[in-house]
Automatic annotation (TrEMBL):
This is N-acetyltransferase. It comes from Streptomyces spiralis. Coiled coil: none annotated. SUPFAM superfamilies: Acyl-CoA N-acyltransferases (Nat). It comes from the Bacteria. Residues 1-160 form the N-acetyltransferase domain. PROSITE patterns: GNAT. Keywords: Acyltransferase, Transferase. The lineage of its organism: Bacteria, Bacillati, Actinomycetota, Actinomycetes, Kitasatosporales. GO terms for molecular function: acyltransferase activity, transferring groups other than amino-acyl groups.
Length: 160
């Protein structure tokens, strides 16, 4: 586990784009370009809110936290994202990443961490429960992908 660096952008992009193409974890079907990936990661690096896990010399997963919503009244709340490379799920990598992410958000003085999870994503819900996130509600049919409606489960962890 280590903090992300600018040269992780391509590996992170590959993991994100796989999730965009094949899953309902990210609610878009537009893959990230190399330039967008550099800019996206740079914004997180500036905030010190990006981590990667390495396994056998490759980036096996990443985690970031960023603003949950952009109006300044939400400034003490962050939203997390954790993604593990296909083929390396279920090995504890997501847990290691989320643990580091929560510690960094606490160190930064944030008050609450939110996870917004597609309601059928049992792996992500279990991962977040494991770290003390509680269900804060499910909003039906606020997204769509692959020709069906998606429900958003919100989970909440108090940090301070
Ligand atoms: C969700 C994700 C990050 C979990 O990471 P991981 O490294 O596979 O998870 P871990 O091995 O650390 O396991 C964490 C917990 O989730 C459980 N879990 C993992 N995969 C699971 C699955 N497919 N179904 C049910 N539970 C699962 C583990 O058993 C463990 O719980 P436990 O401690 O009670 O045994 C990973 O599956 C992933 O990248 N999925 C695709 C992207 C995604 O959905 N990201 C989250 C978007 S909100």
């Amino acid at each position: 586990m280590r903090r992300a660096r600018p040269d992780d952008a391509e590996a992170v992009r590959a993991i994100r784009n796989h999730a965009i193409e094949h899953t309902t974890a990210l609610w878009t079907q537009t893959p990230q370009s190399p330039a967008e990936a550099v800019a996206w990661l740079a914004a997180h690096l500036d905030r010190g809110s990006a981590f990667v896990a390495e396994a056998e010399g490759e980036v096996a997963g990443f985690a970031v936290h960023g603003p949950w919503r952009h109006l300044d009244g939400y400034r003490h709340t962050v939203e997390d994202s954790v993604y593990v490379r296909e083929g390396r799920h279920g090995l504890g990598i997501g847990s290691a990443l989320l643990k580091a992410l929560i510690a960094s958000a606490r160190d930064a003085g944030h008050h609450v961490m939110i996870a917004g999870i597609e309601a059928g994503n049992t792996a992500s819900i279990r991962l977040h429960e494991r770290f003390g996130f509680h269900h804060a509600g499910t909003v039906p049919e606020v997204g769509t992908k692959f020709g069906r409606w998606l429900d958003l489960t919100l989970m909440r962890l108090p940090l301070t």
